[in-house]
Amino acid sequence: MHGKYKALWLNDDGFLEVIDQKKLPFEYETIVLKTTDEIVLAIKDMTVRGAGVIGSVAAFGIYIACLENQNNYADLLVKAKQIRESRPTAVNLMWAVDKMLNLLKNSENLVDDAKAYAIKLNDEEALESQKIAKYGCDIIENILKQKNKKTINILTHCNAGWLAVIDEGTALAPIYEAKKRGIDVHVWVDETRPRNQGASLTAWELTESDVKHTIIADNTGGHLMQSGMVDMVITGADRVSANGDVANKIGTYLKALAAKDNDIPFYVAIPASTFDFNIKDGVKDIPIELRSENEVKYIKGIDNNGVIREVLITPKDSPAVNYGFDVTPARLVTGLITNKGVCEADFDKIQEKFNKQ
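Structure (tokenized):
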């Protein structure tokens, strides 16, 4: 830790270096972000993605903005607004910017303080990820005991590994911990159209960690659950309302419905920064990002000659709509796996566990 994490780090020149997630799984490249504009673009175009990592980059983005403005807090506020508004759904982004600005309000040395605060914030997030790994893996062990099985099959949607939340992830953190404990774990990896974060990023992470997995089309999960081939579902989240409604990658709601119908536990793993205690009804009030229709109409891959190409897969003139997220109502969530343990997706239980009463 201390400014060095798996998905991002401060390099020797004091700038933020990140893995370019748009290039995975075909190429591993990093990009150095030296300006606020570069920070904002990296978040917008999904060079970096995943609620936690967006927040991490935003925190270091405030430090980068301080480098540009030195000790001018008024100018910092302008740049901070640009970072804060770069994407609308993942609350970790707003949380990180607001927390950094609050800490820096009376600073006499913005650059040094911003760097120190950003590192501290991210070190704390990384420690939360380790706790999520432990609590989530305890659930895995309990399910194995209850079912008297030696292998557990877990379905996940989108990517919530260390590329998404430093430094072990959320949904994948218990899986990595299970691997460490010697548990035989197999993961069903939703492809996660239209950006294919599951097929590209989750599968890449699991391959790198030698975790057994199988990529499936997004519409396959219900069949697997009906067939007794899924023991539990774990996803991450981009925002969780005060009453436990969960905003996550589009398609999560359908998986939760299928899990409920087949009596399969559906867990959501999150750091505390993913809670939005100002929203009481997530279905009505969590903003849903509407992204470019081209993400639906075009798909990127590698051809037989090893060349990465983007190709049109629909009629050229057909319109498309691209909602980035959906909201799973709290009633469908078995539990929230947090740094403070497993919490019911219930307003009073959440308030009690996170001392919001």
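The longest strand covers residues 184-190. The longest helix spans residues 110-147.
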